[in-house]
Predict the structure.
Amino acid sequence: MQALDKLYSYARENYIPIIDDESLEILIGEVVKANPKRILEIGTAVGYSGAIMLQNSEAVLDTIEIDENRRNIALQLWKELGLDGRINSYLGSADEILGEVIEGKEYDFVFIDGPKSRCSQYLDECFDHITSGGVIFVDDVLFFGMVKGQDWVPHKHRTIVNNLRKFLDKIQSDERLDVNILDIGNGIAVIRKK
Ligand SMILES: C[S@@+](CC[C@H](N)C(=O)[O-])C[C@H]1O[C@@H](n2cnc3c(N)ncnc32)[C@H](O)[C@@H]1O
């Protein structure tokens, strides 16, 4: 079995939340269209989406993960795939290290896929480091249908759902952005900085 297929099965068996197949197709399409030079990813997990973004571009990837074990699996995968020379992997909470990671850098593609309550904060922090025309891809913005629906939201998800609703309202009324919300997978926001 190929390294990526093995990793995909491992992630599914171990409940590691990697991007779903439908959303991945959209991500690949956006990466190919953008043809980025430098990608920022918040939420590496085991390196699956990072590897696929690099296989579909000539970019360099800066990626942040809080969980050391997941990050180690990612490092192993990228080595096996020969992608390690194009990846800078950062271990830590994006809440704390994002500023340091992006210091002095410019991104034409940003994949926000870490803690769902923090999307707004991360976008604000990165904004000045994103090129004009750059793409910001945010996964899971509709959070199992709870963000759009009027149904009762379980208490444990209420903060995430409220924060995602605020995030979507904010980006959709921001005139510096073109925003497309896709009801695919758990919901994707494809945002273009004008
Ligand atoms: C949805 S998964 C990322 C999936 C990955 N992008 C993929 O599709 O292959 C989200 C990841 O964000 C990590 N994470 C959670 N909080 C974080 C934080 N504050 N800073 C950095 N990473 C965080 C989690 O450990 C988890 O591995």
